[in-house]
Amino acid sequence: MLRRVAVVLTAVVGALAIAGCGSGGSSSTLSKDEYESFVADPLTGLAAVCAFVGVEPEQGYLDACASIIRPRPDRSRERVDWTRPWIDEVERRLAGYDFLEGYAYED
Fold this sequence. Notes:
Layout: H1 2-19, H2 32-40, H3 42-52, H4 59-67, H5 84-94
């Protein structure tokens, strides 16, 4: 049950960050820096979300939620030998989404 709640809270964090609530900004997208700051210190971000929704969480709850947040991206793309045309296509598609600005195949 606790894991399910943690998954829901993680989704809320993402939604609030995308809405600009997590950083106090007015942006409608989650920047690479905001995402990386969140995963570098998920306890602070999760506590801020709880405060935003008016919930005072117990430390065990925050720890459980933070434990399922990956500290770095899953680099599953490294399991495949990519051809240059495939990489070019991925980069072309990345360019079509503002919220992916700053990301590239080589990251």
